[in-house]
Write a structure and sequence with these properties.
Two copies of one chain form a homodimer. In chain A, a hairpin with a 2-residue loop joins strand 2 and strand 3. Chain A has a three-stranded antiparallel β-sheet. By secondary structure, the first copy, chain A, is an alpha+beta fold. The mean pLDDT of chain A is about 90. Chain A is elongated. Chain A has a single domain, classed as Winged helix-like DNA-binding domain superfamily/Winged helix DNA-binding domain (Arc Repressor Mutant, subunit A, Orthogonal Bundle), CATH 1.10.10.10. The structure holds a DNA duplex (30 and 30 nucleotides).
DNA sequence: TTATTTGGTTTATATCATAAACTTGTTTAT
DNA sequence: ATAAACAAGTTTATGATATAAACCAAATAA
């Protein structure tokens, strides 16, 4: 009746990050931070978790001389995101 | 951009309970437990939280000789549930 | 040169979800 | 009648989570 919700995605900030990344090719840490309003620490931790789950890729490079962390959603991440939305619908369609 | 999600509702079990109660006049503990597949302990705790938030009412009575706890959604609960769904849509409509 | 800012990471804490153990009373079996 | 099993929850304990606070290294500004 109520399908299990993927715990990796059932988190406000991680879901926001995935939502953002689902719509773009890639996005860097600073941009994600701005768009979500998250603190650096929290964002850093949640990005790690999404990465550990294989839902996003994280590349550390430089933009000019400054470090720049770029994230992108993976195919597995896209699929998990879609499944999560489908599962959610079971909960919110009364 | 990403609205805050009501933490009372952003919980798998509490959301399932609200989803159930949104569709009926009332439901008792045992029924909710069956429908959600939750353990008694977890359900008890989460029902308390929904009740403390004013989202549901909880009445303890008897069905025959056995205790029976009946829950119903409140108007505030309905409104919170609707708002939560609206907020969620911002996250899942890429 | 000494701040200050940028772009993060690490660590600590407070909350949460869940399971396990317990309680109170009822029904069933002996 | 007594004991064992069951029903309907509650309370307590534990492990996971989210978040904030503190920290760090490099670059830029004063």
């Amino acid at each position: 009746m109520f399908p299990k919700l993927d715990p990796v995605l059932h988190s406000e900030l991680r879901l926001a990050v995935m939502s953002l990344l689902a719509g773009v090719e890639s996005a860097d840490f600073t941009y994600i931070k701005q768009q979500t309003g998250a603190t650096s620490g929290n964002l850093s931790v949640q990005i790690d978790k999404l990465s550990a789950a294989g839902y996003i890729t994280v590349e550390k490079g430089f933009k000019g001389k400054k470090p720049c962390t770029t994230c992108a959603i993976t195919e597995a991440g896209m699929e998990a995101f879609r499944s999560y939305i489908e599962a959610l619908k079971e909960y919110i369609s009364t």
